[in-house]
Each structure stands twice: as structure tokens, then as C-alpha cells.
Amino acid sequence: MKFIDAHNHLHDARLVPHRAEILATLERLGVAQAVVNGTREADWAAVSALAAQEAWVLPSFGLHPWYVAERTAEWMATLRELLVAHPTAGVGEIGLDRWIEGHDDAAQAEVFAAQLTLAVELNRAATIHCLRAWGALADTLRTHPLPARGFLIHAYGGSVEMMGEFAKLGGYFSFNAYFLHERRAAQRAVFREVPADRLLVETDAPAMNPPDERNAHPLRDGLGEALNHPANIEVAYAALAEIRGVAVNDLARQVESNFSALFGA
Based on C-alpha coordinates, what's the Rg of the chain? Predict the structure, then answer.
């Protein structure tokens, strides 16, 4: 069985000291592909380097809404150059976030729209982050041209009703084991309803730890802070199969097909 992580940050500096162990564990598990997402200009080179080192890494480059204020005057030109240099790369992580303190709605909307336009132009999958901005996201996706191959809303946390609308627009939705926390019952319920051909699975490592009792690969940084190990992709697959009442092997085959449809060359 193949595991595919539709969204992580394996290049993250907090994971670098653990890189050898992580890579060995992922190989042992049978992780076939992973989308590694850059979030700002400062980390795009690390994503590119990791993709050059590991053939199973699919890079994705984007300006995350948390870092919009840090962008340089050359950010879009640099992003375009990277995407042209990596013909299979996605555009992400991009999106809208009304949770982050001091957010600039107008700047986020401008940057998000510009990156969607680039994804359309180059026919790349877009990976979207959304927190507390579901109405604004829906308005943008209804009115803006979208990549023909579709887009991923990672760790989807919206409603069932919005999920249906996003799916009609070309959306895919990735399940994260973080949703196994007791307070995330609503997200688990939504993922029972996602169409089978729009399901993906992710870790968002090193963020979004599963509950301690379901964490198969505990990991901590040098200060003792918990990190989400990318090998917890197996936890996410097992949980999603349980939630949907299907065999995990059947789920894995469906996810592989979905991943190919969205991110395939």
C-alpha cells in the first residue's frame, strides 16, 4: 500500500535535525509521494533543494497569507521563475486567513488572486489555506478563474454545504489526523461526506499533531516542543478509513487516483 501526503512542510528547519530518521521511517512505511509546501520567499530555496534530493518530493511554492507583509517587490517574479524551473510544482501554500492577528484583508486578497492567476496560466494545482475566511474564499473562487486541474483546500475546516460548492468548482479536500482531537467532531463529520473522488490525506508536518493517544511517531524539537512527524500520515489514513467505513487499502487506491488527477504531470 502506498501512502501519499498531500500537504506538509518537510523542509521546515525544526525537522532538519531529525531529517535522516524521518526519511528512513517514511521509506519503511512506503510513502510514495509528498507535496512539500513553501510558504514565503525565505523558504522556497529549501523546498527546491529537498525536491532535488528526494525524487518522491513534489515541491509547491507560494506566499502564505501569514507572510504577505514580508513580501519583497520581486516576490511574484521569483515565484514565476521557480514554477517554470519546476514544471510539476504546485502553487501553494496560498490563501486567506482572518485568524492571524493584524491581518490585512486587502493585501491577502490581492496576493491570493495573483497566485491563483499564475496557477491558471501555468496549469498548476493550487493548495489553499483558509482560516475564518470561508465567505471571502467562496466569493473569490466563484468569481476568479481557477486552475483546470483543480485546487486543494488543505485540512479542510469548513461546512458540508460549502464543501459541496467548492467541489463543484474543482476542489479537493485533505484530511488531517489533527481532526481526531475530541473538539474536532464537526470536521470528522464533514469528511464522511466528501465525495470519494475528491479525498486526499495530509499531515501538515511539523504542525497539527494528532492526539497523544493516536500519535504513532512522537517527536520533539530541541526545546521539548512537540512536532508532528510526517510518518503520522499512516495515522491519518487509518482514521479516515475508519470514519468512512472503508478498508484502508481501498482508501489508499482512491487517494492515489485523486492525487494523480490533481497533481499529476
Answer: 17
In the chain, at which residue ranges do the beta strands (DSSP E only) sit?
3-8, 31-37, 57-61, 90-97, 126-131, 151-153, 171-176, 199-202, 218-220, 226-228
Instruction: Indicate the pTM of the whole model.
Output: 0.97
- By the 8 A CB rule, do 236 and 244 touch? no
pLDDT reading at 265 higher than 90:
no
What are the backbone angles phi and psi of residue 144, rounded to the nearest 5°?
-105, 140
Give me the pLDDT at residue 209, please.
Answer: 97
Closest by CA to 154, choosing from 121, 136, 135, 179, is 179
- Residue 43 phi/psi, 5-degree rounding, is -115, 0
Residue ranges of alpha helices (H) inside 103-182 are 105-122, 134-143, 160-168
Torsion of CA 242, 247, 249, 254, to 10 degrees: -80
Q: Which residues pair with 218 in a beta bridge?
A: 228
Q: Is the pLDDT of residue 249 over 80?
A: yes
Q: What type of residue is 196?
A: A
User: DSSP assignment, residue 211?
Assistant: P
Q: What are phi and psi of 181, to 5 degrees?
A: -60, 145
